[in-house]
């Protein structure tokens, strides 16, 4: 939070689906923006973000808090990336002033998850997969569990103490998970795939610690600030730049 506050100041509003107070805080921010804009057609807000981070869940929470009595979901949700496939119609989350709301009302549009066009860093892709930001199966669960074990050992090995002693061997770790949580094949052999899926589920539910996967040291924040000032590359531009870098490396060698 401190890093985001430093980058975006008061523009950063934190939301937790399990804390209704944060939904109401975000609604207040939207209402303030609607008053300031004072548009005849109401304030339009777009929910934008990476896949499977809770955009549709946020829209539903805002609608339920801003328009009490509406029980049906305005946006379909799911635990896999890609549930929302197109920009939806605007959903009223705050009524107009005539109906007890603010100005001409507040409308929110849900959008499909967006992803940077080109990623040449394998570790970044693993982090995104751990956060459930890409389709399940693109990166094997066992590989994700191996990386998560590496990170937990850096944070605090006690995070998985209920399974086994500290270890760097993912097979030993998954064997312990399989034995404790009943992820076994016929004959009592450990099912590493099911054990890995269990570990990932535990991690995503916050039962193996609540840590961010990105580094948030001062140097990293400064690097991100510089990155924000640079225009994004298209897929073609990124590939071209990578080829040029490889040519330079060959020339040096």
TrEMBL record:
G domain residues are: 45-125
Recorded hits in Pfam families, A to Z, give: MMR_HSR1
Q: Which UniProt keywords apply?
A: GTP-binding, Nucleotide-binding
Q: Identify one Gene Ontology CC term for this UniProt entry.
A: mitochondrion
Please list the GO biological process terms of this entry: mitochondrial translation
Top-rank taxon: Eukaryota
Q: Which GO terms describe its molecular function?
A: GTP binding; GTPase activity
Q: What is this protein called?
A: Mitochondrial GTPase 1
């Amino acid at each position: 939070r401190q890093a985001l506050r430093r980058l975006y100041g008061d523009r950063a509003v934190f939301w937790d689906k399990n804390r209704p107070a944060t939904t109401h805080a975000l609604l207040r921010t939207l209402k303030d923006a609607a008053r300031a804009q004072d548009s005849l057609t109401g304030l339009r807000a777009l929910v934008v973000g990476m896949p499977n981070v809770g955009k549709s869940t946020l829209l539903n929470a805002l609608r339920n808090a801003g328009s009490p009595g509406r029980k049906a979901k305005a946006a379909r949700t799911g635990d896999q990336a890609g549930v929302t496939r197109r920009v939806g119609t605007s959903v009223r989350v705050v009524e107009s002033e005539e109906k007890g709301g603010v100005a001409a009302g507040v409308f929110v549009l849900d959008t499909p998850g967006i992803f940077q066009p080109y990623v040449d860093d394998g570790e970044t892709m693993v982090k995104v997969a751990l956060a459930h930001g890409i389709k399940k199966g693109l990166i094997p669960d066992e590989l994700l569990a191996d990386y998560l074990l590496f990170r937990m050992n850096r944070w605090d090995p006690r995070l998985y103490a209920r399974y086994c002693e500290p270890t760097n061997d993912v097979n030993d770790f998954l064997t312990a998970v399989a034995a404790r949580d009943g992820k076994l094949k016929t004959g009592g052999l450990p099912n590493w795939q099911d054990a890995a899926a269990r570990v990932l589920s535990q991690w995503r539910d916050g039962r193996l610690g609540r840590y961010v996967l990105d580094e948030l040291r001062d140097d990293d924040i400064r690097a991100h600030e510089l990155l924000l000032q640079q225009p994004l590359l298209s897929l073609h531009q990124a590939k071209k730049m990578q080829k040029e870098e490889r040519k330079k490396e060959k020339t040096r060698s």
